[in-house]
C-alpha cells in the first residue's frame, strides 16, 4: 500500500464528496435555504385563548378586573425586589475569578472569569430593567382602563332623553 493506493483512496473520497455536494445542491439553494419542495403549506395562526366577542359567544362585552391586574403587578414587584437583591449581591461579591493571574493558563482563566462576570451582571441588570418596565406597563394599563371606564360612565350620564337618537324634535 503505497502512493497509488493513497491516490485511489483520495480519488474515491473526492468522488463521494462530489456526489454528496450534488445531493445537497438538490435540497438547498446556494444561500443555504431550503428549496421549494421543502414547503409544507401555510402554517395556521395560533388560536387565541381570548373569548370570542359578538353573537358567536362572549356576550359581546369585555370585562377587565383591574384589582387582579394590580395584584399581578404587586407580586411581580415582590419578585423584582428579590432579583435586585441578587444583583446587588453579585455586584458586592465582584469578579474574584478575574484576579487569578501569574502564568498563561491562569491569565486566560482570569480573563474568561471576568468576561463571564461582566456578561452575567449585564444580563441580570437588563432582566431587572425589563421586569420593572413590565410592572410599570401593567400599572399604566390599570390606569388606562380606569380612565376609560370613568369617561364612559360620564358620557353615558350626560345623555338625556332629549338628546337620544331618533328624537329630532
Explain briefly what this protein structure is.
With 169 residues, the chain is mainly alpha-helical. Helices cover 64% and strands 0% of the residues.
Give structural notes.
This protein is an all-alpha fold and 169 residues long. The protein has a domain at 64-154. Helices cover 64% and strands 0% of the residues. The chain has helices at 3-27, 66-93, 104-158. Helix 2 (66-93) packs antiparallel against helix 3. The chain is flat and about 110 Å long. The chain starts with a helix and ends in an 11-residue tail after the last helix.
Features:
single chain, 169 residues, mainly alpha, 3 helices, flat
Structural class of the helix and strand makeup? mainly alpha
Number of helices: 3
Low-confidence stretches: none
- Main beta sheet: none
Distance between the termini: 112 Å
Helical content stands at 55-70%
The overall pLDDT average reads: 79
Note the overall shape.
flat
Radius of gyration: 33 Å
Strand content: under 5%
Q: Helix and strand string, N-terminal first?
A: HHH
In total, how many beta strands? 0
Write the layout of secondary structure elements.
Layout (H helix, E strand, L loop, with lengths): L2 H25 L38 H28 L10 H55 L11
Helix pairs in contact: 2-3
